[in-house]
Every structure is written in C-alpha cells, then in structure tokens.
Design a protein that fits this description.
40% helix, 10 helices, homodimer
C-alpha cells in the first residue's frame, strides 16, 4: 500500500491505496496555521497509517510550486513556506521514503498512473474548478520548468481587456472561466436566484441545467473562454491529449460536451479526455506509486 | 564543416560553417514551385558543396512543422508537402547524412549550439518578425510535441476581441504585435508617411525612432502585447530564459529595451536574452552540428 497526504489550505486529507489507485481508508484533519504544527500533524498521520498498514512510500501534495530539488517554492495562502526544503524535512521525520509535489501535478500523476492519461506520455491535465490550474506531463514525467512553477495556465491572459484577476492583471483565463469567475457573474445577474440558496457557481450551473437563460448565457461564454485557453495550450505544446478534471468538467452536458464541440469548431484536433480520478488524496498516492514502482 | 540548407517560400539559402557556427561560403537560389524541382535544387546545392568541401553532415530547415520521424507535416505556403517523409527522401539522395527541422526550431538550435542559449537547457526562442514563431528547448533538445507542431506560439489568443488573424481567429499574438500587424496599423495611420517610401513596419519603426508620436503609440502597444505573450509562456512553461530574435528585436531602444522593462513591471522574472545569430542558414548548420557532435 501507498500513503498519500494532501495538504490543503483548510484541510489535510490522507488515505492509502494500491498501484492501481484503489483507495482504502481515508481521513481528514483541519489544517493548522503554523508550519511546525502542520509538519507535526503530517508526522502523526503518517505514523498512524504506517503502524496499521504496510506502507511502501508516502506522497505529499502541497498547494504551491515545488522545485526539482523537492523544496516548496511558495504556498500562496500559507505563511512560512517560501523556499522550504519540505521533501528533505519530511524524509527526516517520517517512517517511510516520502515524495512531495504540487497538487495539480499530483492530479496529473493520478491520471498518468491509473487514469485517463495511462495511454499517453505527453498530456496536459487541466482542472476547471474554483481556480484553473494545470499539470504538464512530457515524456511520462511531470514537467516543472526551471523553478517548479510551470503549469500556471490559469494566469494565461486571453482577453487583455477582460476582468481583473486575483493576480493583479486583467483577462486571465481564471478570471474569465473559473468557478470563482462564474460565482462573480452569477452575483451580478438578478435572474440567478433561488430562495434559501447562496448565489454562486453551483447555483448558476444548477439553474442553467434547468434552462435558466441568463445562467445559460454565462456558461456559453465560459465554454468559449475555456476553449480558447485549451486551444492556446494546444498551439504551444501540441500534446497527445488534454485531460480535464475539476468540478466544472463534471457538468457534462453544460460544460464538457459543449467544450469538446467548441474545440472542434476551432480546429483543435487534440484528444480531449475527462479525468477519472478525484483530485486530492488520489494524486498523492499516485505520486508515491510513480516514484516507487 | 557542416552544410546548412534553408528552404524558404521564395528562396533557398545554403552555407557551410564549423561547430562554433563560424559561417563560411553561402549561396542563394530562388525556390522552384514544384516539390520535385525543390528536391532537385537541394540535391544540386548539396553535391556542389560536398565536392568542394569536407562536409560531415547536412541540416535542412523547412518553413513548416516536422514530426519526430523526420516527415514534414505541412508547409503552409507550398503545395505537395503534407506528410512527406523528407528526411528519409533526402538521405536517399544526398551524399552525406541529412537532418531536417522546422525553421524556428533551427533558429533555437543556433542559439543552443553556439549562441545566447548555450548556458541553458530549457528555454524558449521567439522570433518577432513578419510573423511570430517559436522553438521550445527542454532538456537540451527541441520539444516538438505529439505531431511536431509545438511552438506555434504566434497563434496564442491574447485579446479575443482583437483584430482578425490570418489563421481565421481573432486576437492572436501575431495579429497584434508582428511586423505584419505593424504594417497594417501603419497603413491605417495617415501620420506614418515619408515621400518615396512604402508604408510598412520598417518605415513605422524608422519614424518612431525619430520621434513620430503616432508611430511611437503603435510600438508602445506592440511592446505591451509582446510582453503579454512572453508572460503567458513564462507562466505555462517557466523556462530558464526567453531568447528573442527577429527583425523587431533588433530595434533595441524601440522594442527590446522597453519590452524587458514591461516584463519587469509585470513581475516576469524569466531572463530575457537577445539572439546572437541571424535565422536561416545558421540554424540549419546548427541542426547538422547538434546531431553530429
């Protein structure tokens, strides 16, 4: 068995699985604030699992860039992690060999090891979710770039006169077509409302699926922007396939199918696949499997 | 010595050089129309050089995508080249081992072998010229992608509501910031004029350098769009460096220096280098050198 630990901004999720990513026991803990407390929590989780199961190795996913030396470059919403040699540190603390990786890259690895990416050695994994992120696989390996920050696809500018992005620039893919962007548009649209429900991307999607025209219009634009983002990546990297994950992708009739159609219309011949794994723990188990077998 | 032959839409240029890309004799011929005539011209050039000099190997650059098997995928402005196994064909016709490669990738190789890319194994070469093209180097090798079309960076959409591009879409980087785009803007600007001179990108640049305000305005936007294109690539690929070539790059005070400034303002930390080689023959010699030594 392999242990995966996914460090998130609000929770630490962990679980064990085999080479084929059949998931067994999983647990979840709130993320402590300080780095030392987080490390201690990871140590406890690892020792718990390792005392109960025969664990071959451990994969740890982090919500930030990781460089080729296994150091965290930066975690946007957590303090004290800049240039922290996490892989080295964890290997000195945990009972089994431990690997670390950026969370979007872990999701790409889950598809590579036992998912929609199994038959490719050159693909881009894209998560269309609260944000838009990616993991690039070249030659069967994660491509991290010079400092580990490759795959920051959500901050590709596709409409320079578009809305403000959290990163300070305007018209980033993420500012136009992510869950956060949809929630913002929904809040500005009086027709998107339902008693007792929060107005956000999920409500907008639910209403669009029921035929609400204002909501449908939002999703038509979202599909178009996602097609542009994917088409840009296809022009730059010419991958064998693009694998789509994340909550938006799961809306098959509202997002996934129209997106595949829109890409065809734009003469993008790249194969589009739907991710088969949930992100999070699954990817961190894949990280351990990939490095061990 | 190594022989390089650069097949262009209007001329075939050839020359010889050594490992350090010191260029010796060069020649130039018009490009015949038909594929068989082009092949025959290449054969004649190769035999001529090989009878006069001691040639180790031959590099041939083509203005279209080349796949990992040495076949031409397509040459946009020449007929009869779709899926043509050019490397195999040339090796059956020419007196020395021959390699083929896309022309922008050849330009990247020239920088890698003996230019601004010598100290990197992971960079993006970008030509800012009539069009905008690129060559991606990963792990010291050209990255071609699944079908050989990787590096089509000029058709990255950065302003979806922008002007029409030759590719049929709108707002491509090339439609906003290439020599062709500048020529078009110049023609629409009455203030850009000089007796006896054609109104094009070169005149616009000359006038901007002399302080013509309308021309300067065009170049301010061009610099901004080029910064966006480069910033997008840096976010996606996190290369060690970006190497800029092509005619626009040579306008140091008008384009190159302001572009480096604009990238700093946008927090792009990637090292920006100026290409040291002319594109064309030099890159094809580099192709031969890279594959032989």
């Amino acid at each position: 068995m392999y242990l995966g630990i996914d460090l998130g901004g609000t929770k630490i999720a962990a679980g064990i699985g085999d080479e084929k990513l059949n998931l067994d026991k999983t647990i979840q803990k709130p993320t402590p604030q300080k780095r030392e407390e987080i490390l201690e929590e990871i140590r406890k989780i690892a020792e718990d699992f390792c005392s109960q199961f025969e664990i071959k190795s451990i994969g740890v996913g982090v919500p930030g860039a990781v460089n080729n030396d296994g150091a965290v470059v930066k975690i946007p919403n957590l303090e004290g992690w800049d240039n922290f040699p996490l892989e080295e540190k964890l290997n000195s603390m945990l009972p089994k060999k431990t690997y670390i990786e950026n969370d979007a890259n872990c999701a790409a690895l889950a598809e590579l090891v036992a998912g929609a990416g199994k038959k490719y050695d050159n693909f881009i994994y894209i998560t269309l979710s609260t944000g838009i992120g990616g993991g690039i696989v070249i030659g069967g390996e994660i491509y991290r770039g010079a400092e580990g920050t490759a795959g920051e696809i959500g901050h590709m500018i596709i409409d320079v006169n578009g809305p403000q992005c959290g990163c300070g620039r305007t018209g980033c893919w993420e500012a136009l077509a992510s869950g956060t962007a949809i929630s913002k548009l929904a809040k500005e649209t009086p027709e998107i409302t339902e008693e007792g429900k929060e107005v956000n991307a999920i409500l907008a999607a639910d209403l669009a699926e029921k035929g609400n025209e204002s909501a449908l219009k939002i999703f038509q634009k979202v599909v178009e922007y996602n097609a542009i983002g994917i088409s840009n990546l296809a022009n730059i990297l010419n991958p064998q396939a693009v694998i789509l994950g994340g909550g938006l992708t799961k809306r098959t009739k509202l997002v996934f199918d129209p997106l595949v159609e829109e890409l065809k219309k734009r003469n993008v011949n790249t194969i589009i696949e739907k991710a088969v794994h949930e992100t999070g723990v699954m990817g961190t188990i894949a990280l351990a499997v990939k490095n061990t077998t």
